[in-house]
Amino acid sequence: MINIGIIGIGRIGRVHGESITKFVKNAKIKAVADPFLNEDGKKWAASLGIENTYTDYKKILADKDISAVLICASTDTHAPISIEAINAGKHVFCEKPIDHSVKKIEEVMDIVKRSGLKYQVGFNRRFDHNFKAIKDAVDAGKIGKQQIIKITSRDPEAPPIEYVKVSGGIFFDMTIHDFDMVRYLSGSEVDEVFAVGSVTVDPEIGKAGDIDTAVITMKLANGATAVIDNCRKAVYGYDQRAEVFGTKGSIAIGNDSNSSAVLSNESGVTGEKPMYFFLQRYMMAYAAEINSFIDAIINDKPTAVNANDGLQPVLIGLAAKKSVDENRPVTIAEIKKSFDL
After folding, report:
1. What is the pTM of this model?
2. Domain shared by 66 and 152, yes or no
């Protein structure tokens, strides 16, 4: 049994806490830590049978009975806590992104490589049953040579403006999942990015220096072209669709809903809306990614999503941001050169 400590029990930390308690084998949460821990947080932990609650995460790192930590705190803490945790001899699962700074991600990658410990990044969509079905079909050669990859990702509601101001922007807190999904589904790296963006949902997002609607076109190293469309608000729910088209055919996935029931009557034909948000759509994917992390620890296997998988979407995001700002295609080689990669 692997004892786990969770650092940060905001929304995503609680998602992991509940999924681990209910669905993850061979792991137990021994402690949680959050600088803003209050009575509600303590009650939540107690409801899951978690005995130890701290305001100082260093108490988790100092606990020799804890083998692995989940870093679910604010993004600006991911890299420094990752380094502290590795130095403390802990295996690390870190929510995306590792950092917005390429230099800080490199520092994490270097210390992970030298440590021999397991490090996994939280790109949960790789573990979703729908996206995995596409990946399996592509890997089995069922659609032939890849030609076009399309990903639609639209949230049901825009985040609070205060979040937008510190999120790093749409490409780093939302589209980063889609950049990772392009790499995952294609098995290829991105060579060039051209992105256009606008503010169509909330003018305050524009005033905060961000966009809320974007289309990104990418040239891949395998010769395929990928297209992502994003929007911060879709009135009908959480819209998550994808297609890979190739020389032998295509494979596509639609949205999950609470049921497949379709009502047909004189007023029309009506189905259910997509599940409302990621908590509903991806709960089992969160459990599956932690099961994969625990399996890597127990059986000394490589993690399914490593630190380099955390770096590449950030490089793509930087290219997309530069493309929007300068209204031109931007190569990943150009971004790498600027960081001496």
Report:
1. 0.93
2. no
Q: Which residues contact 181 (CB under 8 A, 6 or more apart)?
A: 125, 126, 131, 151, 242
**Residue in the structure block whose two tokens are 């971004």:** 335
Contact at 8 Å (CB) between 227 and 191?
Answer: no
Query: Alpha-carbon distance 38 to 30, whole Å?
Result: 18
Is there a contact between 78 and 97 (Cβ–Cβ < 8 Å)? yes
Please name which of 134, 314, 126, 332 lies closest in space to residue 219, comparing C-alpha atoms: 332
> How does pLDDT run across 306-339, given as a tens digit for each residue?
999 999 999 999 999 999 999 999 999 999 999 9
Q: Which two tokens stand for residue 104?
A: 């800080």
User: Based on the domain organization, do 101 and 166 belong to the same domain?
Assistant: no
Q: How confident is the model over 22-74, as pLDDT tens digits?
A: 999 899 999 999 999 999 999 999 999 999 999 999 999 999 999 999 999 99
pLDDT category at 140 given cuts 50, 70, 90 is very high
On whether both 45 and 113 belong to a single domain, the answer is yes
Same domain assignment for residues 74 and 139 = no
Domain containing residue 236: 126-276+312-338
Same domain as 228, residue 85: no
pLDDT at 166: 86
CATH number at residue 49: 3.40.50.720
* Structure tokens given for 336: 């790498």
Which helix (H) or strand (E) is 51 found in, with range?
none
Query: Which of 274, 213, 201, 202 minimizes the C-alpha distance to 239?
Result: 274
